[in-house]
């Protein structure tokens, strides 16, 4: 069962998210120690974090920046902030997605599912093709002289081709 950490200071929203996640088959944990947010998240070994920007002690963007220094755990920002700048900052600090409140619960669950599926696929770690090191989790191809950064879709296509190399396509009927 995948574990999701909820980092939200509004009790009602925490309870709603917790119920939604448990009904969807996830284990949900609510962060209550905002003074030590980053260490609590790291110690939880969560598979994904739902992080609000407006939290006590340190805002969610600061938490995200510190978290990214130590972990690649997927993070979805779930916030009432609708300013484009907040979304740009969150994504540039390493957020995997950004959802504004009020959100559609079904859409949130689908985004969680997509990110968990992608990170599970990428958890296979690095591999190589000829003399090129392939890091699917970071979307990087590295020949030692040249480093190429691929988009998520480009890496998915590359990994699919790599996993099926040498096989011919089935005939079209």
Label the overall shape: globular
> What is the CA-atom radius of gyration, in angstroms?
18 Å
Biggest sheet features: 5 strands, parallel
Strand content: 15-25%
Strand order of the largest sheet: 2-1-3-4-5
Order of helices and strands: EHEHEHEHEHEEEEH
| Mean model confidence by pLDDT | 86
The quaternary structure here is: single chain
Global structural class: alpha/beta
Quote the distance from N terminus to C terminus: 40 Å
- Indicate the low-confidence ranges by residue numbers: none
Individual helix count? 6
Structural description of this entry:
This protein is of the alpha/beta class. It contains 6 helices and 9 strands. Helix 2 crosses helix 3. The longest helix has 18 residues, at 105-122.
Write the layout of secondary structure elements.
Elements: E1 3-7, H1 11-23, E2 27-30, H2 37-44, E3 48-51, H3 60-68, E4 75-79, H4 84-92, E5 97-100, H5 105-122, E6 127-129, E7 132-135, E8 140-142, E9 147-149, H6 152-163
Parallel strand pairs: 1-2, 1-3, 3-4, 4-5
Antiparallel strand pairs: 6-7, 7-8, 8-9
Features:
173 residues, alpha/beta, five-stranded parallel β-sheet, four-stranded antiparallel β-sheet, 40% helix, globular
